[in-house]
Write a structure and sequence with these properties.
Layout (H helix, E strand, L loop, with lengths): L3 H34 L5 E9 L4 E6 L10 E7 L13 E9 L2 E9 L1
Parallel strand pairs: 3-5
Antiparallel strand pairs: 1-2, 1-4, 2-3, 4-5
């Protein structure tokens, strides 16, 4: 009887730990699934102005879903300054803007 009491006690104490570990694994998988399912759609816009000296492009754009921003015209930094040489006012583009270091920055760009 003395041998089974410690075993029962160990099993009783181990059950909540196993349950917590399962919950943590389940929670982690849930976040991984959310992250992989979070495909950010590109926004649509038209290049209005280029400022090569400042490395900025002004875009008249539709809503930016990932930034919860309505349609407007505004300037963005470019993740790759070489894009300034590939764009001209009037170009229709698809793009992804993100906040990087406090500045709204175009991180992905496709000309139409």
């Amino acid at each position: 009887m003395k041998a089974t009491l410690p075993l029962a006690l160990v099993l009783l104490l181990a059950a909540p730990l196993a349950s917590a570990a399962e919950h943590a694994d389940s929670h982690a998988m849930h976040h991984d699934t959310e992250a992989s399912a979070k495909k950010v759609p590109l926004s649509q816009g038209t290049v209005k102005k280029l400022d090569k000296a400042k490395g900025l492009v002004t875009i008249a754009h539709g809503p930016l879903a990932n930034l919860d921003m309505p349609a407007m015209t505004m300037s963005f930094k470019l993740n790759d300054p070489a894009w300034l040489d590939q764009l001209k006012p009037g170009d229709r583009i698809s793009f992804l803007a993100e906040e990087i270091g406090g500045a709204l920055t175009v991180t992905r760009l496709e000309r139409k």
